[in-house]
Amino acid sequence: MWFHPAAPAEPCERGWRLRTTDGAPGLHVAPLGAGPGTPVVFIAAAGGCAADWAHVQQALSATIPSLAYDRAGLGWSDPRPRTDARALVDELDELIRRVSPEGPVVLAGLGHGAWIAQHLAQTAPARVAGLVLADAPPLDPPGGAGLGRATAAVGPALARIGLTGALASLAGDPIGLPHAAADERRRALAQPQHHITAAQEAAAWPDLARRIRDLEPPDRELPVAVIATAPDASPAHALQILPARRSRRGWFATAAGAAPADLLGPRRSALTVDAVRHIFRVLH
Hints:
This protein is α/β, with parallel strands linked by helices.
């Protein structure tokens, strides 16, 4: 295993719960693969968790070390005092400092998780060696706003009346994860705090989109791989692939109509794996 945390850290599910700084919430991290080498840090979509990436991590593990994490308050991580756009990005910055103090990492984000990756590449470019943006919503107007409002309204209500466990059981495993990861995911999504935090994050996404739009794009030499899910030649497709077009070392593929779960599991995860491998071909 490429990453073995020093104290203070405790075993948690398939990895550890560690604190990035004194007083910070404990973050559940799930590393996989052998080192040395530049690691990939996987960032879950809205309402997602580290277990979502288990299939992709396994496919890469022979040659590329990786780490997936639960954002504070989601999955098996402790809740944070506040959940806003800045907290989402600062948390990732602090995590990278902890797990890869000697060099930058490749960031791979799904859905709104791709926005967190983009913004960190803008604000802390020395930490980011490359970007993989899978099914990233449009920034203008912010994609997923309707779903975000629904999550903000429904999630806490389900938590209050104790229905999150039933919801997780009904949802099953849409990804097609290995058994241990599927069980970890089901139990994570059954926790009321997970849904409360997902609702808080939903309220923060529009501000994160604004912050990305207000800053210059990442350096054009930064390798960027994009997986677009909008139909070819559509305005949404053009917006999704724009970060790859801006990069001198950009790459994109199209999986029109693919659901986020498709890009994580046996159905279409080969595209996600190819996107990560493209970044490493460029870097090495």
